[in-house]
Fold this protein.
Amino acid sequence: MRRAINRTAALGRRARSVAVEADHVQVDGIPGVLTSTFLHDNRPEWFCEQSRQRVSAAYGQEKDALRPAIKAAEVVNGQLCVEWAVQHPAKPDAPQSRFDVTWLEAIAAAPDGQAGIAEARSAEPMAFEPGVVPWSLESYASKDGVVELSDLPGVDYTAAMTTDEGCLAWLETLHTYGFGILRDGPNTKDEFDVELVAKKTANYVRESVYGGVWEFGVSEPLAEDAWDHADTAYGTDKLPLHTDGCYSYDPPGLQMLHCVEYQAIGGLSVLADGAHVLKQLQAADPEAFHTLTQHAFDFSYFDKDNGHYLRNTTPPIVLDPFTKRFKQIRLNDCDRDPFHPTTPAAVYEAWNALQYHANTATASVKFLLQPGQILVFDNWRCLHARSSFRGKRILKGCYMNREDFASRLRLLRWRSTNEPPPFMPPPICPAQA
């Protein structure tokens, strides 16, 4: 057994002891041990000072090079100075590495992502991302199933568009409930800036077969051959609960809708929380739930006039392959291809069970979207629909990417703490005098 070498050095007003072994060090005030493999992998000299990306070949060497022996280590002026017993082939001129102790403290204190994965994989029933709150009609005050916009989750439009605090509150609302209302925004289509809302929510507008920023709606029923695209959303009939883009490899993450003109009867917006629906399905019929995570469906979009033929094969319920957390629900009978004649009856029954739970009276909320009130919802989580209408109803909006929404949320959460992310590369430490 190797003998521990204890050294102390001043850091601020106190000294830190460092216990040194050939394969690890233990620093006073930092939980656990810092292995030579960890320290070697994060040697600051591997990183570019400007981009903070790895630029040196720490890997691709002999196996023993991944576990270089530590000759000595001490803390000096807020730096852990590690002297390597053998110089690495990629850095023969760097016998010593210097680590910022504050960075080491932060990364050691951060939760281990692999531990979170193991916890989620063992969760029964299905787990959700932290902070997600499933909801149903019973979560809100309603009359005949209709909820006032003011009773739904939302934030002030101006605050969300002009301040980090307001924007973070907006993104947290979307993360928690899967949808939200931006209140008291621009009333007309000329005043409403779709790209601004998209930028604040998910960095940019996502292009699709429908374009980037789109406007649709009618003032009277149109023949199908007059629709701008081969999609039932461009009519006036009732639309069933569904998610968009099941035929896409990467379905739209979020959808924005602003009713910029409304002089109609009907046309209620309808939302159901896929997180709630799947919880109900898993509790009532776990076999159906399991079937819909394993059996792949075919979804297609064919528009010969505009030159599109999209097709995707995917299970309707998508769980993260590592964490087993809920990731996506894909439900759209309008875009579903016919089942093959050999499809087992259990698949039909599971598909029916999913739609049964989605369409129960208490699963969804109905509300009237009016000018000045902007709806954004998570298309990977929420099912949306529309009641039939007569009159004029014009909507403006766009799609956004799910990963870019997550990026904005992560960024604003970080800004609110005024602390460097613990997962950032180690800072370059100046040489000691």
